[in-house]
């Protein structure tokens, strides 16, 4: 590819139809490292002749870039997206053109509780400035989003997700990172969708941790998908179990151990599910002392918020009880849901059980309508979706969740855009962890 390195978003913000502008280095994103107080993973892709791409970084307070450090990324060639059936932004059928060097680096020796800025250099130019914040503060906040289904022919999906994240950041201007429970792209096999996603403001301004969803795994045609699309597009820690390195992963941010799972594997059967649980139990044991709380995250919903029927809750409740999981995060249902604390399948007091939550969808198009709950009504504290239809079967939900973590409480707030695209806050809730 030839170069004009400024990313598309600089020219048109997120309101225009995306173009696949040429650049030497692209899809730049900060992903968590195991210990986010002193380490951070940065991932990007580069043209095949960019064998010397580097990252330059410094504290955000070093505004003149006088105390920079440089890190050389490691790379390997990837052709896994090339030739996949896809679509252009115009909606035209297209085969992806994506042969590149997949770069990654783990920055180390960072100062805790500090904002950093970085840019990636190519042969002739460098990227715009990106940012992340290290862990280390006693309290932290993340914006939790799900089911964006990034799709270049319909840019309103990403535009809606951006708008609701922006609304959330206005409420919590000091948000530390963005977390996602998957389906961030419509087809994982379409590299152009990933690249478009990483051109969005949130990917530039925050560390981004995400979980593989069925859409991130799938390709447009041909049946079957691959976890490798997700593995290559991101630069997650490679601390998952055999075959899941860079797909399932764990990280510690503040006093929370986050564990992420791959439903596309676990849904195959009990032994795949057991392998994930065995890995997670081992991490929990080995990292003991380095965290105070455990959050688990998978794509598929715990409950179906159309009627309250339990779904993946049944698969994980024993695990959550055994290991005292504080918060269980999921998506996929396209409906917001929060339970009261649960243990042994019963409602318990704050701090005595696990709260299971689902983030709503955020694309304003593929929402599922929340229905009357007829099952598990004692467990489900709140559900939300838009009731305005985008088509016969789907609704226009645009939401995300603010999660504030302090030593003795978890505070969650649903942020959504109503029919007039005005930001609303609902289900503000504090779960006390000290039994008070
Ligand atoms: Fe989805």
Task: Please provide a written account of the structure.
The protein has two domains: 8-132, Sandwich (Immunoglobulin-like); 136-432, Metallo-dependent phosphatases (Purple Acid Phosphatase, chain A, domain 2, 4-Layer Sandwich), CATH 3.60.21.10. It has nine helices and 27 strands. The protein has helices at 8-12, 156-171, 191-198, 201-205, 214-217, 228-233, 263-266, 270-286, 313-322, and strands spanning 25-32, 40-46, 54-59, 69-72, 74-78, 85-87, 93-95, 100-107, 115-121, 130-133, 140-145, 177-180, 207-210, 250-253, 256-260, 293-297, 303-304, 309-310, 327-330, 336-339, 342-343, 346-347, 355-358, 380-384, 399-406, 409-417, 423-432. The strands form seven sheets. It has a seven-stranded mixed β-sheet, covered by helices on one side. The chain has a six-stranded mixed β-sheet with strand order 13-12-11-25-26-27. Strands 1-2-8-5 form a four-stranded antiparallel β-sheet. The chain is globular, with a radius of gyration of 20 Å. The protein is α+β, with helices and mostly antiparallel strands. A hairpin with a 7-residue loop joins strand 1 (25-32) and strand 2 (40-46). Bound molecules: fe (ii) ion. Fe (ii) ion (FE2) binds next to loops.
């Amino acid at each position: 590819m030839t170069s004009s390195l400024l990313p598309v978003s600089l020219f048109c913000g997120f309101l225009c139809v995306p173009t696949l502008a040429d650049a030497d280095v692209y899809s730049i994103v900060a992903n968590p490292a195991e210990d986010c107080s002193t380490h951070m993973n940065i991932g990007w892709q580069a043209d095949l002749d960019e064998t010397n791409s580097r990252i330059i970084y410094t504290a955000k307070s070093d505004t003149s870039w006088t105390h920079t450090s440089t890190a050389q990324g490691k790379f390997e060639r990837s052709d896994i997206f090339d030739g996949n059936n896809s679509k252009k932004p115009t909606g035209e059928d297209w085969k992806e053109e994506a042969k590149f060097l997949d770069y990654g680096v783990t920055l180390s020796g960072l100062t805790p509780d500090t904002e950093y800025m970085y840019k990636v250099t190519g042969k002739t130019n460098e990227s715009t400035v990106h940012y992340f914040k290290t862990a280390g503060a006693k309290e932290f906040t993340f914006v939790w989003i799900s089911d964006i289904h990034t799709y270049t022919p319909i840019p309103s999906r990403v535009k809606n997700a951006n708008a609701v994240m922006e609304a959330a950041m206005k409420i919590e201007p000091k948000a530390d990172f963005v977390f996602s429970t998957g389906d961030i792209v419509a087809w994982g096999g379409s590299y152009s969708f990933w690249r478009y996603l990483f051109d969005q403001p949130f990917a530039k301004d925050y560390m981004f941790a995400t979980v593989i969803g069925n859409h991130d795994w799938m390709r447009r045609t041909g049946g079957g998908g691959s976890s490798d699309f997700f593995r290559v597009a991101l630069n997650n820690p490679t601390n998952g179990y055999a075959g899941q390195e860079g797909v399932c992963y764990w990280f510690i941010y503040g006093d929370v151990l986050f564990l992420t799972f791959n439903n596309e594997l676990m849904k195959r059967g009990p032994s795949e599910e057991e392998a994930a649980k065995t890995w997670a139990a081992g991490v929990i044991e080995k990292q003991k002392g380095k965290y105070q709380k455990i959050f688990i995250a998978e794509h598929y919903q715990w409950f179906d918020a159309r009627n309250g029927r339990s779904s993946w809750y049944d698969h994980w409740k024993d695990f959550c009880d055994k290991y005292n999981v504080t918060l269980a995060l999921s998506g996929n249902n396209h409906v917001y849901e929060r339970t009261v604390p649960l243990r042994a399948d019963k409602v318990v007091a704050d701090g005595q059980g696990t709260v299971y939550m689902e983030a709503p969808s955020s694309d304003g198009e593929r929402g599922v309508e929340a229905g009357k709950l007829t099952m598990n009504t004692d467990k489900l504290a709140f559900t939300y979706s838009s009731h305005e239809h985008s088509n016969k079967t789907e609704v226009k939900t645009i939401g995300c969740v603010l999660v504030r973590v302090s030593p003795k409480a978890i505070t969650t707030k649903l942020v959504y855009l109503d029919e007039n695209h005005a930001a609303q806050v609902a289900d503000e809730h504090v779960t006390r962890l000290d039994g008070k």
